[in-house]
TrEMBL record:
<protein>
    <submittedName>
        <fullName>Tellurium resistance</fullName>
    </submittedName>
</protein>
<dbReference type="InterPro" id="IPR003325">
    <property type="entry name" value="TerD"/>
</dbReference>
């Protein structure tokens, strides 16, 4: 782990921009403490846009080989509606505090959290339309010594399970220092949830670690993957039913 941190620290120095750090498979770790960014309010933002489906793609070469004269035929213009996939992405955070308290902050179940008292994490709410502002979590890093670990995740509540059809980006904006970007651009057909990053206290450093691990289920499957040990029940937007609680 410490060797991994050392490599990540070099990546921040050589990132090519003093204003942005991109976490990747080869450089998945960065220390907010090392950057002087481990205080104030950390803003974590999810934005996404949709890719068109293959309906608008050029004709395949194999089709041209079978019917070479089709090259001179007019192509059928596809309507914009069917060419798009409807995906509703949500941003959430599982937390574990030093005193053993566990829970989740997410729009589902109206578990909005609180920035100024435990769990010191709060969500801005739910963006169902992929607006430019996206969805945002706020973490009170002035209380970082209260945290054991935070798992930030994205899930598809409704619509087609098609992370591969979205262009999703999670960006961390510390109170000072460069922003940190994590792209969700890996192919994951049928996946409904993605563990994006972990925030952890380790050896005097408050670390951000890229995860980008896709699962086919929802929060309970992410819980099992990371050993949170909470009890989960099915929740629905617009109702008081909890999407998950400790």
């Amino acid at each position: 782990m410490w060797d991994l941190f050392q490599r990540a620290r070099m990546a921040t120095v050589d990132s090519g921009s003093p204003y942005k750090v991109t976490l990747t498979k080869s450089t998945p770790l960065v220390s907010l403490t090392e950057q002087g960014s481990a205080s104030g309010h950390l803003r974590i933002n999810l934005t996404w846009s949709m890719r068109p489906t293959e309906l608008n793609q050029p004709r395949q070469r194999s089709s041209l080989l079978r019917r070479p004269l089709s090259l001179f035929e007019p192509q059928v213009v596809q309507a914009q509606g069917p060419a798009m996939v409807n995906v509703d992405l949500d941003l959430g955070c599982m937390y574990e505090l030093k005193d053993g308290t566990k829970g989740v902050v997410q729009p589902l179940g109206k578990l909005f959290g609180d920035l100024h008292k435990p769990p010191y994490v709060e969500t801005s709410g739910d963006d169902r339309f992929g607006a430019p502002s996206g969805e945002t979590l706020y973490v009170n890093l002035d209380k970082k010594d209260e945290f054991k670990r935070l798992l930030v995740f994205v899930y598809i509540y409704d619509g087609t399970p098609a992370f591969s059809r979205t262009q999703a980006l999670v960006t961390l904006f510390p109170s000072m220092g460069p922003r940190i970007e994590i792209k969700l651009d890996e192919r994951a057909p049928e996946a409904r949830s993605c563990a994006v990053l972990l925030l952890e206290n380790r050896k005097g450093h408050f670390l951000v670690r890229r995860e980008v691990k896709y699962v086919y289920g929802f929060q309970s499957e992410l819980d099992g993957l990371y050993g949170w040990g909470m009890q989960w029940a099915r929740g629905y937007k617009g109702e008081d039913a909890s999407g998950g609680d400790a």
